[in-house]
Amino acid sequence: MLIDALKKALNVSTQVASLAVIVEALDEVALNFYLKYSFQQFRQDSLKLYLPMKSVQELCQTLDL
To answer: Tell me, what CATH number does 28's domain have?
Structure first.
């Protein structure tokens, strides 16, 4: 589901300028899940994370999506 959402975000980014995908982890388990996909934590709130669109594009290319 995450990969599908990232692919859709990448497709939409060609129409709407976007710098990153932002998520909010509900708990430590979810936090670790997002960290596995190279999401970065915001300094102000460790449960809020972002993944730059460039990283999304690289991930989609790696997975051949």
So the answer is: 3.40.630.30
